[in-house]
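Hey, quick one: can you model this chain's 3D structure?
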Amino acid sequence: MKTLSLRGIDEALAENLKKTAKKTGTSLNKTVLEILRKSVGVNSKKREVVYHDLDDLAGTWTESDWEQFKRATKQFRAIDKDMWK
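Sure thing. Here's the predicted structure for all 85 residues.
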């Protein structure tokens, strides 16, 4: 990746860039890169993958739920010694 230094950024431009970064919740650097990419027609933004599998369960189990789960899955922790001879 290349590094560029920009000179001649006036106060109004700097403030508008900072406001845009704050509004989008991204860093100033990411904001400037995104604006540059859009202006020259380059879209190198990585595709974000959002998984919706078990994340809804995180932190929702009670102690009773956990005990029930351990009882229900106890057989999976057993080692079949005959298979390992």
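One thing worth noting: Residues 55-84 form one domain.
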